Structure formats: C-alpha cells, structure tokens
Amino acid sequence: MGGGHVTEQHAPAVVTGGAGGIGRAVTAALAEAGHHVLAVDITTGADPAAHAELVADVGDPSAAEELFRHIEQEYGPPSVLVNNAGIYEARDFFDYDAESYRRVLDVNTGSAFSCTQSMARRLVAAGRPGSVVNIASISGRVGSPDTAYGASKGAVIALTRGLGRSLAPHGIRVNAVAPGVIDTPMAARIPADRTTGYLDSVPLGRFGRAAEVAAAVRYLAGPDSGYVTASVLDVDGGLH
C-alpha cells in the first residue's frame, strides 16, 4: 500500500474498483475537484491522478476493515467514499452455483456495506461529516438477464436509501448513481446480441461514457449536493 500523510484539511476520498473504467474516470474527476483520491482495487492500474493506489479485496469484510484502519493511520478518516467495486459475468441463471452467486453479492453489495460501515464508524467517532456515493446500475431497477448482477445492484439501491436515512443524523450523506450501459471494458462482456437490443432501447441513441458517470459522482460527493441524501441518480440515456 502506498503512503503519504494528508492533513485534515485535505481528507482523502476513497474510490473502490479504482482500476476499472468508471473507477479511473471517478478518480480523475474527484482529483480535479481538489480531493486527494485513494484508488483501491484488487489489482493496480488506477488513473495517474490518484494520490495513492492501494491493493485490497473489499469483497472480504475483514480486508475492508483493515483497509480503512490503514487509511486512517496514514491519511486520516476519509471524507468521501465511492463504492464502485463490482464484478459482472454474463451467466445464465441455471449456470450459477452458490459460490459464484455469493461472490457477486459479496463484491457488488457486501463491499458497499462493509466499506461504508468502516468509514462511517470513524467519521462518527471523529464528529465529522462525509459523503458516500454507491455505484448501482439501472439493472437494479428493472432487472437483468444476469440475475445475480441485477439482484446485487437492486440491493445497492435499497442499501443507499436505508443508509441515507440512518446516517443523516451524523451528517453523513449516502447517495447512488445508477448507470445504464457505459462504454467500459466491463460492458464489453455483455453478449453482442443483447448489446444491440440495449442500444436500440436508449432514447439518446448511444451508450454512456465513464466521464459522464464520474460527473454525477462528483456532484453527489461535493458540497453542491449538500441537501441530497438517500437518492439515486440515473445516468442511462433514458433507458429506464
């Protein structure tokens, strides 16, 4: 894990899944907004704008807690958390086994729960406000042929609404962005026949860009959205 102390004035922003397409775009957008961004992933490859690149499997609750313990010691409690870590597999319902299904939920939903809990405990103890932005998906609203993925993102939306209310008295806002199909390496795993169907269904007539999702995250993470919590912002070209 990289190091380097940051003063309380520059409390870090943590982006999980920081080596992915949306994660890299979010890292760049938050850094441009003045945040010291800590990009977290199971592998390296974060945007160069990251203040530091940390390696952790946040799908493991104990690893998530250890990550935030390290961050607190090295950088201080984060003020912003973007729960972007996620996995996607194009898999038929009957091809799932218990282990593969559980792994999707552990990473896509469990990591958001564990990381938010680890950060919020520290913010509450320090008496400081914060902002959490979860990366959900339009699949969490309308369902998906990839059932585990859709279920996990629906859970992220429910988690966002619940935590947004329960953490509001502590000054911690929790919101989500629900992207549609975004032109990233993860989207390239969608079967070609379905990709054509999705594109035909998008009123704006194109797939989204990672930078467009990042712009929504930047808004929800920053002071301009100070009266917004327990909300989900769709970035899907009207697909919903």
From TrEMBL:
Top-level taxon: Bacteria
Pfam family, one: adh_short_C2
Coiled coil spans: none
InterPro entries: NAD(P)-bd_dom_sf, Sc_DH/Rdtase_CS, SDR_fam
Family: Belongs to the short-chain dehydrogenases/reductases (SDR) family.
Name the UniProt record assigns to this protein: Short-chain dehydrogenase
Provenance organism: Streptomyces alfalfae
